[in-house]
Each structure stands twice: as C-alpha cells, then as structure tokens.
Specification:
- The protein is of the alpha/beta class.
- The chain contains twelve helices and twelve strands.
- Helix 8 packs parallel to helix 10.
- The longest helix has 17 residues.
- The protein is globular.
Amino acid sequence: DAKLRQYAAEMLMVGFKADSITPDCDAVRYVRDLHVGGVILFDVDLTGSRQIGSRNITSRERLRTLTKQLQNYSDGHLLIALDQEGGRVARLKTEYGFHPTVSHKYLGEMNNRDTTAHYASVMASDLAWAGVNMNIAPVIDVDVDPNCPVIGKLGRSFSADSAVVARNAEWFIRAHHRKHVTCAVKHFPGHGSSAADSHYGPTDVTLSWQPYEMHPYRHLIKHKMLHAVMTAHIFNRNIDPDYPATLSYKTLTEVLRNQLHFDGVILTDDMYMQGIVDNYDIAEAIILAINAGADILVMGNNITTGYESERPFKVVDIILNAVKQGKIPAYRLRQAYDRIRKLKRSL
C-alpha cells in the first residue's frame, strides 16, 4: 500500500556518510527515492576514522549547500536534525567556522535568562543559517548523579535542581523558536541518575531515578514549549518492569501522553544502540517502539554497530510487514505521520 509506505518512511530519521551529495549517493536515495521524513547529521564518523570533520559537517558553507540540496530532493519538508547542546556535545564546532558554545552546566550555574537566551540564540542562528531545522537539545535530564558518565560528568545537565533545568530549557527553546528551529528535548523519562551509558548496553535507573525528573517536562508542556521529545534506552522499573523507555507503552503512552498530556512528536534515541540491539531483534524492537508510541525512529547509522547503507529501506519493509501481519495497527502509522507533518508545518 503506497500510503502506508509513505507513512512508514516519514517515521524515519536517518544518517549517512558524506559532506556533499551526488545524485546516486545514500543521502539522495533516502530522501528522493524512499522519502524519509528526516535526516540526522554528525561531524565525526564513528564507523570510520573518528576524526573531526570525517562525516557530514566540514565547513559552514558546505553544510549550507548540503542542506539546501537535501531539501531540493525532498518536497521541501525534510527534518534536518543534529545535536547542538553546547559544550562537549556540539556538532557545529568552531573548527568549521561556527560560533563557540557553552555547556548546559555553565548556563545552569549562571541561571540567568539573558545569558541562556543569548547563547541559545547564537546557536539557533548558526543552525538556521546552515539549514538545520531541528536541534536535538536541550538536555532536560536533571543532574541527579554528578558522576553519571553520559550526563553529569560531561556537563550536559543544567542543574541538580529541576526548577533550574525547566527554566533554562524554556529560555533555550524560546530562542530557537524565534529562529524557526524546533527542539527535541531528551532523554525521557530521565537519564541523569544512570551509572552507565546506554550506547553500550542496557542501563537501569530503577533505584536512582527520582520523580522530580518529570518536572521539566510538566513545565515545558504547561508553557506550550514542548514540540518533540527523545526517549532514553533506560530501564526504569518504577514505570515499566519489562521494557526500556524507548520500547515501553507504559512510559511513552501512559505516562508521557496520558499523564503529562504531551501531544507532540516522540523520537527514539538511536534504535541501533547496544542498549537495544544487544537485547532485541531489530524487527521486534521497531514493533515495540511504534506500538509504545514513538513517532520517529532514529537511526543515525553512526555507532558501534556499524554503517549499513540499505538499513532505511529494510526498516520500512520491516514496518510494512508488521502492519500486514497485524503486529502494528495501521492507525499508529497515520497518527505518527500526522504528528510529524504538524511539527513540520509549525516550522
């Protein structure tokens, strides 16, 4: 069914290699032929040399040309995303001619509206100029454990105080919206207390997670600032004893949608991270994620599990087969498609 294929492809946000494109390269095949809904860009190729500038971002001008060409190959409605948090996690680096950034931790310590708005605005201007319309930021994880290897230790959280996180996140997002860049906050339902990194295996926060980690989500929903949320591949048995958040209906639908009343787009963290693929067959994981309530499946094709150029095509087939077999209700694809389209219209 052509409609269902269109919906399934819209749900993909994919990565590719190269900082410029040719008519038959992977990026063009994904955008022009498969009609994926989004792409995610990186500056370092973790499946290759791991050098600065080894992936999609090598200079301001080249990036701007790349995003223009990609939009031309799409219907002009491609989500082009990257992680520009500031500090340690910044794909647009000074090496490529972009403005310097500061970490969330720095901004949270300053805890000043003008400071946060200033740095976020400079960042959003760089993104908008380069043709990037989604920032997978801010991180609204609360700094529950400053020794958390992926959040606290890297200065990626605004604060241990959830109110400071919520306020700074709001200022950060408002500055992006002014430049017509949307934000996907992360990592629901809270990664700030984890003792491990979900890139490399399952991470359990059952004993360390705190209910106040939900506060920034409540705050941003109340202020109509939350358009997109990225999930975490973490086990939190307080919410779901069986599945990590990305694959959990209880977490994504019962908590985020029904309790917190979030009606925007839910993105998964990368579906090929070891936190998922070590424990689930990929088809099973995709079915679980979509049924749990995820709208966009992220596959950056840029992690330890390696680069595979046919992956997006295979994933669309996996989704369509699952619908045919009655494992995913067709309405879930339509619902995801409608949410993604609504987000794109808001840009």
